């Protein structure tokens, strides 16, 4: 309980409880609203803590299973925080612009990523030196432009298992694509949004930098735990694999020794095979009477 209290205090200090003006509210947020103060809705921090813990546990499980969670935040006040946290846990992110079809038309987006990587390679290994200055400059600009939009998703080869959105109203295209593909969705939901649109809603102020930072850092910590547990499981499997292998090797060596010993015993008991004695003159045989030349 102390943990929850301290987390609540941190959320309170970060201003996570401040919602939007009453006239902008979404009635579906009613269960998450604690009160109204000076025409502004106040979010119930008990609900925020519950939402954070549920989302954290689910993300930890996803990370532990080795799947990817994509962070999406194209709002100015959230970009840097989200990018830094996503890089920390090696997860894909979109912080510049959501390209329509980034999930639903993933193969085409992957082609663009490969094009960007081939340009990077050309500029890096010196093969672009054959081009004139203007062509090199054009390539470099194209690479920078693509990297800005696609840099965060360059390392993924398949659609992520989940999406974490900082403002589900602002990122409605990403949310619609994820829902269409049946991808799990997690989101910071302010009082002007519909919490039923995401699988895991975290009622929180999605406009203040401090509020975004505390929520995103909590989620990142949960993912880190999941990744650490996955690594620990891998290490255990490796050790058990090694011990099983060595036990099998020992058993095989022991079996081989037994077979060798049995072989030797058989040879000793049987002795060398007796040579067949051929009957004939000088070998205990007699010449037939009256036979042979004299």
pLDDT average, as an integer? Answer: 83
Distance between the termini: 125 Å
CATH topology of the largest domain: Rossmann fold
Report on the biggest sheet: 5 strands, parallel
Query: What is the CATH class designation of the largest domain?
Result: Alpha Beta
Low-confidence stretches: 272-294
SSE inventory with pairings:
Elements: H1 2-13, E1 18-21, E2 33-37, E3 40-43, H2 45-64, E4 69-72, H3 79-88, E5 93-94, H4 106-125, H5 133-150, E6 162-165, H6 172-181, E7 184-189, E8 200-203, H7 209-270
Parallel strand pairs: 4-5, 4-6, 6-7, 7-8
Antiparallel strand pairs: 1-3, 2-3
Helix pairs in contact: 1-2, 2-7, 3-7, 4-5
């Amino acid at each position: 309980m102390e943990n929850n209290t301290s987390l609540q205090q941190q959320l309170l200090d970060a201003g996570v409880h401040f919602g939007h003006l009453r006239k902008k509210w979404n009635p579906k947020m009613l269960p998450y609203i604690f009160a109204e103060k000076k025409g502004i809705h106040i979010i119930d921090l008990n609900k925020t803590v519950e939402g954070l813990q549920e989302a954290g546990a689910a993300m930890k499980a996803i990370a532990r299973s080795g799947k990817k969670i994509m962070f999406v935040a194209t709002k100015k006040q959230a970009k840097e925080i989200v990018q830094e946290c996503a890089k920390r846990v090696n997860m894909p992110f979109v912080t510049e612009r959501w390209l329509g079809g980034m999930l639903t038309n993933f193969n085409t987006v992957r082609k663009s990523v490969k094009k960007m990587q081939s340009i990077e390679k050309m500029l890096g290994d010196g093969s672009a030196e054959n081009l004139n200055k203007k062509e090199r400059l054009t390539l470099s600009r194209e690479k920078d432009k693509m990297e800005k939009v696609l840099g965060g998703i360059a390392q993924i080869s398949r659609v992520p298992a989940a999406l974490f959105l900082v403002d589900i109203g602002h990122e409605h295209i990403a949310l619609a694509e994820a829902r269409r593909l049946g991808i799990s969705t997690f989101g910071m939901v302010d009082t002007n949004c519909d919490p039923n649109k995401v699988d895991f809603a975290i009622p929180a102020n999605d406009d203040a930098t401090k509020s975004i930072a505390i929520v995103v850092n909590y989620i990142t910590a949960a993912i880190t735990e999941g990744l650490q547990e996955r690594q620990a499981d891998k290490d255990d499997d490796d050790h058990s694999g090694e011990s099983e292998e060595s036990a099998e090797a020992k058993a095989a060596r022991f079996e081989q020794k037994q077979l060798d010993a049995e072989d030797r015993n058989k040879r000793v008991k049987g002795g060398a095979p007796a040579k067949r004695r051929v009957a004939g003159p000088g070998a205990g045989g007699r010449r037939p009477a009256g036979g042979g030349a004299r």
